[in-house]
Amino acid sequence: INVGCHRRQISDLLDQSIQISSQCFVITADNRFILLCGFWDKSFRVYSTDTGKLTQIVFGHRDVVTCLARSESYIGGDCYVLTGSRDATLLLWYWNGKLSSIGESPGSECFTTPRAILTGHDCEVTSVSVCAELGLVISGCKEGPCLVHSMNGDLLRTLEGPESCLRPRLIQSSTEGHCMIYYDKGHFCLFSVNGKLLRHMEVQDNIKAMLLSRDGQYLLTGGDGGVVSVWQVSDLKQLFTFPGCDAGIRSMAMSHDQRCIITGMASGSIVLFYNDFNRWHHEYQTRY
């Protein structure tokens, strides 16, 4: 029975081969719906955060959907949703904020079609990012390079990192035209969307979550070490490290005003950190 603390539990089974990560989930801008992928039937699904009820099932891929991302939202809560799959393709969908569903006309659930099909990878897509303001989609696959597509589906370029950067795991892009990619074994690369490698660094932690600030100037990272770090994107300088936690960090989010960092821990707990990006901002420092 859907009551009490179990009222908002999603009990649908994911494909056994899927390793659940924060990239399997997307929350809509109004926080009312969760989009979830990794189901055995090759769908991704929409659930109400208030009731835990399934509200839509969307099909389109020929294999299990492995990752999700959404663009920034427009007025009314509309946005683009990007899905990556084991079939080595990406599909770009439109989220209708008014109807609270994927698709642009009411009652069209059965015939929901993607806005674009993006190809170019030759193995499972593992990480995706979409920036509607720049009209770009950035994606990485299990064994291969990261690709930049237009939102129409045109393959624009490949992002080539140093030789040690082979397997992309996390991707974040900013409206300023920067793309931050985390590869396995602690490697970070900062690219311009034109494909130029701007910076490269290596960290000791096994990173599981990263976030860019809204203005694209700051990067937050967290991983198995249980430490949240703040970096300056322009030169990848470490600005601050929050006190360590007793468990690894698995996911990260920020409140709308960017004053609160929320981390999901390997232990099942949720930890909140107070944050103020202004303290590192040059104008703020000189004024105060």
Automatic annotation (TrEMBL):
Q: Which UniProt keywords apply?
A: WD repeat
One Pfam family this chain carries? Answer: NBCH_WD40
All copies of domain Neurobeachin beta-propeller, residue ranges: 7-274
Task: Offer a single GO CC term for the protein.
Answer: cytosol
Question: Which segments carry the WD repeats?
Answer: 58-93
> Which InterPro entries does this entry report, sorted A to Z?
BEACH_Domain, NBCH_WD40, WD40/YVTN_repeat-like_dom_sf, WD40_repeat_dom_sf, WD40_rpt
**Single GO molecular-function term?**
protein kinase binding
Cross-referenced SMART domains, in alphabetical order? WD40 (SM00320)
Biological processes annotated in GO: intracellular protein localization
Name by which UniProt lists this protein: Neurobeachin beta-propeller domain-containing protein
> What organism is this sequence from?
Xiphophorus couchianus (Monterrey platyfish)
**Which classification does the entry list for the species?**
Eukaryota, Metazoa, Chordata, Craniata, Vertebrata
